[in-house]
C-alpha cells in the first residue's frame, strides 16, 4: 500500500478516528459516559437522525439536496400518531406513507419539472410543515399507548433499542446498495457528471427519482420513530434536521457536490454529532461551567469545522475531500 | 449529388433530418446512409452539425423532422440508453465520462457483471483490463478516471463503446487527443470491428486518417448533407472544397497556412528556460523564445510538452531550473504571476481548464480582461462589445451572437473562443497547446494565419502540436522533447521531417544550453 492510498484512507475514515477520540475523551472524563444506560439512550435518540442522514447521503451523492427531510419527519410523526390507535402496522404505514408522498413530489419536481433540487425540496419543506400543522390542529398529537405502537421507539430487541436496530439495518442495506448494485454506482456516476452519465446511456432520471423517494420514505420512518419514542406526533419538530443531516453526511467524507461518498462513514458522522451533544450535556452536569444551548451550538459548529479542515488537510484537498477509493 | 446505395441493404438510413435550437436551425435536411460492416466518415466544418446529427440519432436531442430507419425499422429512441440497448454505441466528442469514478465503473456501468444479484467487482475489473488490453493499455483500473491524461481517457471511452456488442459504433472525433501510435492502435480495432460485421461512423477533421480507414464519406455543410461518396471516388481537394462550399481551384494544396516567414523580424530573447525539472515527466528541459518568433515543442505523447508549458505558466511547481522573462529572473508561484509577467496559456484540455460552458461567448472572451476594460469596477460595455465583435469576426466564431452560451457551440468553436480570450489579453508570450485540435481545415488556416500575424507583430509564441506538418511549417525553431528531456534544437523551416521524427523517437543526448 503506497502512502497516497494510506492518506486517502485516513481522509475517508478520519471521521471514525475523530469519533474514537471523542469516545475516549468522554470515557476518561465522565464516570457514566460508557455506562449501559447512557450508551443505549444515545443510540436510541440518534436513530432518527441516522435515518434522515442516510436518505440525505444518497441525494447528495447524486449532486442534489433534500431540504424537506425535517418537516417531512414532522409530518410523518403526526400521521403515524393519528393512525397509531389502529396498531403498529397502521402507524408505520401512515408515517412512511406520508414520507413516500413527499418523496414522490420531490422526485417528480426534480426529474419531470426539471426544477433545481434546492428549490423543489424547499417548496416541499414548506408544504409538509404546513400539512403537519393542519393535520395536527396546531398541537402535538398523543399516540395510542394501547395498540403497542410505542414499542417501535421505546422497546428493545434483546438489549438493543429497536430504533437503533432499524437504523443499523437501513445502513447495511444502504451500504450494499451503494457498493454492490448498479443503482448505487449510477447514483455516484450521476453526481460525478449528470450529462455525461446520460450520454453513457445510464438511466439518470429513474435513479434520481428513486433517490428522492427513498429520502422521503426514510424521513417518514424517522417521523414514526419520533412519535413512538416521545409518545406524540410533533408538528413543529424537525426544524434544522436537514442541516444536521447535511453536516453528518459531509463530515462523513461525502462530497457535497456529489459523485463520491460512503454510507457507513455517514453513520459515523451522525454518531459524532450525537456524542458531541451528549458530552456537552455531561459537561453541564459536572457543574463546573454551565453552557447554554447557544454556546453548545457554537461549540458544535467549531468542532465540525475542525474535523472538516483536518480531513481536508490530510488528503491535501481544499474544502472538500472526495473519498477517492472508488468501489471495492 | 447523393449516391443512393441499395435501400434494402442499409443498416442506418437517416433522411431529411431537421433540428432547431431556439428557432435557429442546426440541422436542415441532413441525411446519412450507413451500410452494414462499413467504416463511414462524417465530415464538415465546425458547427456543420455532425455532433448534433449524432445526438439526434441517439436520442439525446429530439428531432424536429425527418425519418430514421435502423435495420430497416423505424427508429424512435427517447434517450441514449435506449439507443445503446438497440445496438448503437457512441463515443461523444469531448469524452463524456465521469472523472471522479474509477476506470472500471466508467467502462462497465450499464452492463455490470453480477454474482447472486450483487456486483462482481473482480470480474468487472478483469473485464475493464481485458478491454483496455486490446488497446495495449495497462493501468490501475481501480483509480479514478480523472487521474489519467486526456489520451488515456479517450481510450477508456473507446473501450467502453466497444464493450457493448453493438451493430453501429459512432466515434465523434476520437483521434483529436491521440498520438500517432495510439491512432494506429485505434485503427486496427476499427478494422477488427469491420471484420466482425460492425459498422463504424467516424468523425474527424484529419483528412488523411479518413483515407486510411474509411470506405465511404458523407459531407455536411451548414446543417445539411452536400455529398456522399465512396472514399476512393473523391480526392482530398474535392473533399475540402465540398466541405467549405468553394471551388476546387480556390483550395490550395498546402498542409498548413503557415507560409515562408520573414525571419528578419525576429527580435531579441524574450524568455529563457534552463534545465527545468519537476518529477518524472519533466527532467531536463532547456529552451528559449525570442520576440516575434514561433518556437515549437515536438515530441510524442508523454514527452513532457504540456507539463513543461504548465511549469512555465506557474500551474505546476518547479523542482529545479532557472527561467527568465524579458531578461529578469522569473519564478512564477501561480498562474496569476505568469499572466502579470505577460504570458497567456491556451490549454489543450479546454473543457477542464478553460471554457466556462454556462457563460456567454462575450463573457468567456472577456473573462480575464475584465479588470482592464473596467473603470472603478464598472464594466465599459461598449469596449467589451467592440472587442468581442472583433474576435468573433477575426476568428470566424460560428455562434448566434455574443450572448449565446458557450456550452451550445460546436467543439471547434469553443476552441476559438478560448483562443480569443488569451489574444484579447495582448500577451507578450503566448503558449498554445494544440491550438488547432478539433478545428476544421478552413478555420485551422485562419488560426494559423492569425498566429503568424501575431508573431509578425512581435509576440513570442510557444506552440505545442501533435501535427507534425504544423510544427514543420509553422515553427521558426523546433525543440524536440523526449521523455522529459530536450534532446534536439532544429531550425524550423530548414529542418526535414525525418530529422524531427528521428529525434522524437530516439533522439541523442540532451542539447547543451543554447547560448
Ligand atoms: N444545445 C445546443 N443549443 C443551441 N445550439 C446548439 C446546441 N448544440 C449545438 N448547437 C449549434 O448547432 C450547430 C451545429 O453544432 P455541432 O456541434 O453539431 O457541430 P459539429 O459539426 O459537430 O462541429 P465540430 O466539428 O466543431 O465539432 C452549431 O452552430 C451549434 O452552435
Ligand atoms: Mg462536433
From TrEMBL, chain A:
Gene Ontology MF terms: transmembrane transporter activity
Principal subcellular localization: membrane
A Pfam family reported for this protein in Swiss-Prot or TrEMBL: BPD_transp_2
Location within or outside the cell: Cell membrane
GO cellular component term, pick one: plasma membrane
Bilayer disposition of the protein: Multi-pass membrane protein
Keywords: Cell membrane, Membrane, Plasmid, Transmembrane, Transmembrane helix
Annotated transmembrane regions: 6-28, 49-76, 88-111, 118-137, 157-178, 209-232, 238-256, 263-280, 286-310
InterPro entries: ABC_transp_permease (IPR001851)
UniProt name for this protein: ABC transporter permease
TrEMBL record, chain B:
Ranges for domain ABC transporter: 12-247, 264-508
Stored InterPro entries: AAA+_ATPase (IPR003593), ABC_carbohydrate_import_ATPase (IPR050107), ABC_transporter-like_ATP-bd (IPR003439), ABC_transporter-like_CS (IPR017871), P-loop_NTPase (IPR027417)
A Pfam family: ABC_tran
Compartments in which it is found: Cell membrane
Domain of life: Bacteria
Membrane topology classification: Peripheral membrane protein
Alphabetical list of PROSITE patterns matching this protein: ABC_TRANSPORTER_1, ABC_TRANSPORTER_2
Location, primary (coarse class): membrane
CDD domains attached to this UniProt entry: ABC_Carb_Monos_I, ABC_Carb_Monos_II
Keyword field: ATP-binding, Cell membrane, Membrane, Nucleotide-binding, Plasmid, Repeat, Sugar transport, Translocase, Transport
Keyword Membrane: yes
Family the entry assigns: Belongs to the ABC transporter superfamily.
Keyword ATP-binding: yes
GO cellular component, one term: plasma membrane
Gene3D superfamilies: P-loop containing nucleotide triphosphate hydrolases (3.40.50.300)
Any one Gene Ontology molecular-function term assigned to this protein's record: ATP hydrolysis activity
Protein name: ABC transporter related protein
Amino acid at each position: 500500500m503506497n502512502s497516497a492510498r494510506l492518506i486517502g484512507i485516513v481522509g475517508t475514515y478520519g471521521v471514525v478516528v475523530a469519533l474514537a477520540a471523542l469516545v475516549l475523551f468522554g470515557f476518561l472524563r465522565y464516570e457514566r459516559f460508557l455506562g449501559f444506560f447512557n450508551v443505549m439512550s444515545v443510540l436510541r435518540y440518534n436513530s432518527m437522525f441516522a435515518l434522515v442522514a442516510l436518505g440525505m447521503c444518497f441525494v447528495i451523492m447524486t449532486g442534489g439536496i433534500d431540504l424537506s427531510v425535517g418537516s417531512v419527519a414532522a409530518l410523518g410523526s403526526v400521521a403515524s400518531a393519528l393512525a397509531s390507535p389502529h396498531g403498529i402496522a397502521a402507524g408505520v404505514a401512515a408515517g412512511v406513507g406520508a414520507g413516500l408522498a413527499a418523496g414522490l413530489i420531490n422526485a417528480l419536481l426534480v426529474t419531470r419539472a426539471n426544477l433545481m433540487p434546492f428549490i423543489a425540496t424547499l417548496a416541499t419543506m414548506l408544504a409538509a410543515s404546513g400539512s403537519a400543522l393542519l393535520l395536527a390542529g396546531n398541537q402535538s398529537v398523543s399516540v395510542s399507548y394501547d395498540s403497542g405502537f410505542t414499542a417501535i421507539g421505546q422497546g428493545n430487541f434483546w438489549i438493543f433499542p429497536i430504533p437503533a436496530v432499524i437504523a443499523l439495518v437501513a445502513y447495511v442495506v444502504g451500504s450494499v446498495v451503494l457498493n454492490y448494485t448498479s443503482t448505487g454506482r449510477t447514483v455516484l456516476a450521476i453526481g460525478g457528471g449528470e450529462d455525461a452519465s446520460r450520454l453513457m446511456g445510464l438511466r439518470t432520471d429513474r435513479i434520481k427519482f428513486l433517490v428522492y423517494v427513498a429520502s422521503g420514505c426514510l424521513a417518514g420512518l424517522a417521523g414514526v420513530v419520533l412519535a413512538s419514542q416521545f409518545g406524540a406526533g410533533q408538528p413543529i419538530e424537525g426544524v434544522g434536521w436537514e442541516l444536521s443531516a447535511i453536516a453528518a453526511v459531509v463530515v462523513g467524507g461525502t462530497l457535497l457536490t456529489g459523485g463520491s461518498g460512503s454510507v457507513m462513514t455517514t453513520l459515523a458522522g451522525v454518531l459524532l454529532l450525537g456524542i458531541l451533544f451528549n458530552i456537552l450535556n455531561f459537561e453541564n452536569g459536572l457543574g463546573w461551567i454551565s453552557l447554554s444551548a447557544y454556546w453548545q451550538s457554537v461549540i458544535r459548529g467549531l468542532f465540525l469545522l475542525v474535523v472538516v479542515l483536518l480531513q481536508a488537510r490530510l488528503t491535501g484537498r481544499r474544502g472538500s475531500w472526495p473519498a477517492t477509493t472508488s468501489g471495492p | 449529388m447523393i449516391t443512393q446505395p441499395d435501400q434494402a441493404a442499409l443498416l442506418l438510413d437517416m433522411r431529411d433530418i431537421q433540428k432547431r435550437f431556439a428557432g435557429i436551425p442546426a440541422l436542415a435536411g441532413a441525411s446519412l446512409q450507413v451500410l452494414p460492416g462499413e467504416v463511414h466518415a462524417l465530415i464538415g466544418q465546425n458547427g456543420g452539425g455532425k455532433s448534433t446529427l449524432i445526438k439526434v440519432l441517439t436520442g439525446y436531442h429530439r428531432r424536429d423532422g425527418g425519418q430514421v430507419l435502423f435495420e430497416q425499422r423505424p427508429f424512435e429512441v427517447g434517450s441514449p440508453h435506449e439507443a445503446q440497448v438497440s445496438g448503437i454505441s457512441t463515443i461523444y466528442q469531448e469524452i463524456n465520462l465521469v472523472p471522479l469514478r474509477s476506470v472500471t465503473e466508467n467502462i462497465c456501468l450499464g452492463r455490470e457483471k453480477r454474482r447472486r444479484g450483487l456486483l462482481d467487482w473482480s470480474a468487472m475489473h478483469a473485464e475493464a483490463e481485458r478491454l483496455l488490453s486490446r488497446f495495449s493499455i495497462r493501468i490501475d483500473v481501480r483509480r479514478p478516471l480523472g487521474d489519467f491524461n486526456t489520451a488515456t481517457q479517450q481510450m477508456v471511452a473507446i473501450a467502453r463503446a466497444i464493450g457493448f456488442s453493438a451493430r453501429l459504433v459512432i466515434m465523434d472525433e476520437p483521434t483529436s487527443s491521440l498520438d500517432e501510435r495510439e491512432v494506429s492502435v485505434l485503427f486496427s480495432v476499427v478494422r477488427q470491428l469491420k471484420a466482425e460485421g460492425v459498422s463504424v461512423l467516424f468523425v474527424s477533421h484529419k483528412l488523411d486518417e479518413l483515407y486510411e480507414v474509411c470506405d465511404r464519406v458523407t459531407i455536411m455543410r451548414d446543417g445539411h448533407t452536400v455529398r456522399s461518396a465512396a472514399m476512393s471516388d473523391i480526392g482530398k481537394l474535392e473533399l475540402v472544397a465540398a466541405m467549405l462550399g468553394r471551388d476546387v481551384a480556390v483550395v490550395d494544396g498546402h498542409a498548413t497556412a503557415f507560409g515562408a516567414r520573414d525571419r528578419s523580424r525576429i527580435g531579441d530573447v524574450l524568455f529563457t528556460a534552463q534545465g527545468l525539472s519537476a518529477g518524472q515527466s519533466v527532467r531536463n528541459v532547456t529552451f528559449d523564445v525570442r520576440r516575434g518568433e514561433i518556437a515549437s515543442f515536438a515530441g510524442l505523447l508523454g514527452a513532457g510538452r504540456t507539463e513543461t508549458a504548465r511549469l512555465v505558466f506557474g500551474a505546476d511547481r518547479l523542482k529545479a531550473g532557472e527561467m527568465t522573462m524579458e531578461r529578469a529572473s522569473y519564478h512564477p508561484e501561480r498562474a496569476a504571476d505568469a499572466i502579470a509577467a505577460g504570458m497567456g496559456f491556451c490549454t489543450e484540455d479546454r473543457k477542464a481548464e478553460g471554457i466556462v460552458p454556462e457563460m456567454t461567448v462575450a463573457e468567456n472572451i472577456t473573462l480575464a480582461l475584465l479588470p482592464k476594460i473596467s473603470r472603478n469596477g464598472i464594466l465599459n460595455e461598449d469596449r467589451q462589445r467592440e472587442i468581442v465583435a472583433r474576435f468573433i469576426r477575426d476568428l470566424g466564431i460560428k455562434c448566434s451572437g455574443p450572448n449565446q452560451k458557450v456550452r451550445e457551440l460546436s467543439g471547434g468553436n469553443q476552441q476559438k473562443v478560448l483562443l480569443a480570450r488569451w489574444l484579447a489579453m495582448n500577451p507578450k508570450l503566448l503558449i498554445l497547446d494544440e491550438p488547432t485540435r478539433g478545428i476544421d481545415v478552413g478555420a485551422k488556416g485562419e488560426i494559423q494565419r492569425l498566429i503568424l500575424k501575431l508573431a509578425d507583430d512581435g509576440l513570442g509564441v510557444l506552440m505545442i502540436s501533435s501535427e507534425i506538418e504544423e510544427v514543420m511549417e509553422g515553427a521558426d525553431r523546433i525543440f524536440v522533447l523526449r521523455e522529459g528531456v530536450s534532446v534536439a534544437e532544429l531550425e524550423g523551416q530548414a529542418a526535414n521531417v525525418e530529422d524531427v521524427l528521428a529525434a522524437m523517437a530516439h533522439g541523442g543526448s540532451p542539447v547543451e544550453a543554447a547560448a
